[in-house]
TrEMBL record:
Organism lineage: Bacteria, Pseudomonadati, Bacteroidota, Cytophagia, Cytophagales
GO CC annotation: membrane
Protein name, entry field: histidine kinase
Catalyzed chemical reaction(s): ATP + protein L-histidine = ADP + protein N-phospho-L-histidine
Matching Pfam families: HATPase_c (PF02518), HisKA_3 (PF07730)
KW Nucleotide-binding (keyword) present: yes
Amino acid sequence: MKLYIAVGTAVLLVMAIFIIVFVAYYQQKQIRQQLILKEWQEKYRKGLLAATLQAQEHERRRIAQDLHDEIGTMLSVTKLSLNQLGRTVEHNDPGSTVLVQKTRSLLDETIANVRRISRDLVPTTLERFGLVSALEELAEKASNGEVHVELSCSDKMPTLLPQLDLTLFRIAQELINNAIKHANAENIIIDLHCQPNGILLSVIDDGRGFDLDEILKDKKRGLGLRNIESRLNVIDGHVTFDVEEGRGSRIHIQVKNLKPEVEVEVETV
């Protein structure tokens, strides 16, 4: 009887151990499947974001080309026709000189605006000369009598992947635009520096700041900030907002995707 009890107990113990092992294995398998599913969902989300951003850039390029090739050309032809008409009108009616000159001035301003918009849509300097030169040009264009924008960067900057170049440029463009239009900043610093594991881009301003939580809660506002986060999600970047109402903002962008084998020397501002 004791032998039967011992054998039965052993069998029950083995079955219990088997059930425990099976349940643990099944749970681990489920966890692995959930992790794999989350990984695929994250890859799909990033791929969808990347495709969306790429489509936006393609649309920007198409619009810029249409502005340059069609609208710009038509305006230039119109200016030539106006010049010819102006000479005839001024000869027959000298009093119309002021009107012709005013029309010519408006036309010149329109042509300049079309060219500016076209260049803003497609940063040709970025494609030709890289991120540092593009940021220098951006700072120069944004500076005027009321706003001063300054670029500070490392003595040597590595050549980055084109996608990363474009992402950092668009983010800097967005942050400078926000600082000028919404924060009424007078001084803005673009700080671009190398780190041991990546690149740090900071945009610092002396504007009136903002409440980040309130901005992100409002679906009609904060679209630019959400676009920044979307761009960074595609390249596994990170943004830190050091902001509050009543003081200047410090926004830091950290990225890791580098091509460190090539370096370009630049002057430190």
